[in-house]
Amino acid sequence: MTEKDGCGHHQDERRKQHRQLMGAILSFIFIILLVVFIIFLILRPTKPHFTLQDITLYAFNISAATTTLTSNLQITISSRNPNARIGIYYDKMDVYATYRSQQITLATLIPPSYQGHKDVTVWSPYLYGTDVPVAPYLAMSLAQDETAGTVLVNVRAAGRVRWKVGTFVSGGYRLNVNCPAYISFGNKNGGYTVGPAVKYQLVAGCTVDI
Question: What pLDDT does residue 107 have?
Fold first, then answer.
């Protein structure tokens, strides 16, 4: 065997050892991820529980002449993580109000946050909608609802969440929350005055889809 052949043989041995080492590392990583994934499936994360606690209404005015709606409100919405071993990352969440499926306020962005095991997180965003055009039939329906004394407004949230199990963090999942809120008009027992606004204590459960 020549010196050149000997060098080539050693290089082949090094390449073989390198491949074996890389294969062992990748196998180890794969096994770890597989174990975490199996644990994740066994734990079966439960969806967070959302509650609309109250609404403070500053303005809710329909213009019959222009069929536009101006609404200004602050809501208090809470989320409880029911999982004992799984944390939740709220990467993004937009909150807005709708009336009969039409969006009537701009979306307010909730800052990203992490929710630990069994933790409760509370947000109190403001929702604004100034001279929002609504369909003529919706303007009529809203006027009729106000005359009847109760208006159903839905507070919705849309965003993305991730689950955290130990050091493992899942991919993103789409989050959709719908909170119905019945607002009373012309009823002194429906809310109480807070400065220029009327506050309604609701404590209404929300539907959550992930």
Answer: 97
Alpha-carbon span 107 to 156, nearest angstrom: 9
CA distance 64 to 136: 9
Alpha carbon distances (Å) from 189 to 76, 192, 199: 20, 8, 11
CB 199 within 8 A of CB 73: no
Rounded (10°) CA dihedral 190, 192, 194, 198 = 20
Q: Is the dihedral of CA 25, 26, 31, 37 positive or negative?
A: positive
In the 8-state DSSP scheme, what is residue 125? -
Cβ neighbors of 20 (< 8 A, separation 6 or more) are: none
Phi first, then psi: what are they for 74, rounded to 5°? -120, 135
- pLDDT mean by block of 10 residues, the chain; 210 residues: 54 73 82 69 81 95 87 96 94 96 96 96 97 90 89 96 88 94 74 80 91
Please state, in angstroms and as integers, the Cα–Cα distance from residue 76 to each residue in 42, 79, 187, following that order: 34, 10, 22
